[in-house]
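I have a small job for you when you get a moment. Can you supply me with one protein entry, sequence and fold together? It will help me judge whether the discrete encoding reads sensibly. Write everything out right here, beneath this request:
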Amino acid sequence: MLSRVLANASRNAGNVAVLGAAGGIGQPLSLLLKANPAVKTLHLFDIAGTPGVAADLSHCDTPAQCKGFQGNEEAGACLKDMDIVIIPAGVPRKPGMTRDDLFNTNATIVASLAEQCAEHCPNAWVGIISNPVNSTVPIAAEVYKKKGVYDASKMFGVTSLDLVRAQAFIAEASGNDVQEQDVPVIGGHAGITIIPCISQAHPPAKDFSKEELEAITARIQDAGTEVVKAKAGAGSATLSMAFAAARFTDNCLTAQGGQDVVEYAYVESDVTDSTYFSTKLTLSKDGIKENHGLGDLTDFEKSLVDAAVPELKKTITKGEKFVEGFFANKE
């Protein structure tokens, strides 16, 4: 619901860039951001099509000033003076594909865009949607490190869709008001690395049987595949991802405006043996103010963490090694 997306809109308007704005996630995300009163300037970037998207959005009677940038030669102008950069650029999943199948194409796209961000808006907050997020966030971080501008408190993997799904599914199963439902989701953003902490749900979830708990956990973990199959090759989770990313961006704008905000995101972390992990965070005007860790987990949830960490470590290493090759090929 748009009202909930905009509920935390700050009075201090900010400048937001969407990289991949002409795509399946980028267009609805850009529409939601154009409607957000906390957005002062909205810059849209893609390899093609963004002038048309920007012209279309500019006809919406909202305050945000919208401009489209097309092609790599215009990336610098797009990114100059941005406060937040959201990156949904890349190819979507199709039936039978895992997020890892997208790696080679999307890894190159994210590394290239991260290089542009590091050069033109090094202090902006960066939210990465491009899959596989478990690898693309470490990729962007390594690029920033190579450029000497990395700040772990401002680099995020956008896992908000996992929370949105968990809250929708748990509210429906429990008979709770979906607008009041909160369900923490920690870990990563693919398959078994997605860990819904249903024991911490508020209002509380129904008293699930062991079988019910395992089933609804699996549904949350596999929800992206559910959408890919339902669209039968015509796309992936674009609308729900745009909705979740708009909420994430709004929370970031609120934090940048001086009001502390609670958010979940995939970030550099030492709460487990995985060097990146999504947990409850407090965001302030300078980025991540506090990482609240795992919280109180049940034995079942602890087993999910134990299963997730080795998978995360593998995908993180894959991303970091990609960056070594990416820069070696430039020499």
Confidence is low (pLDDT under 50) at residues 1-10.
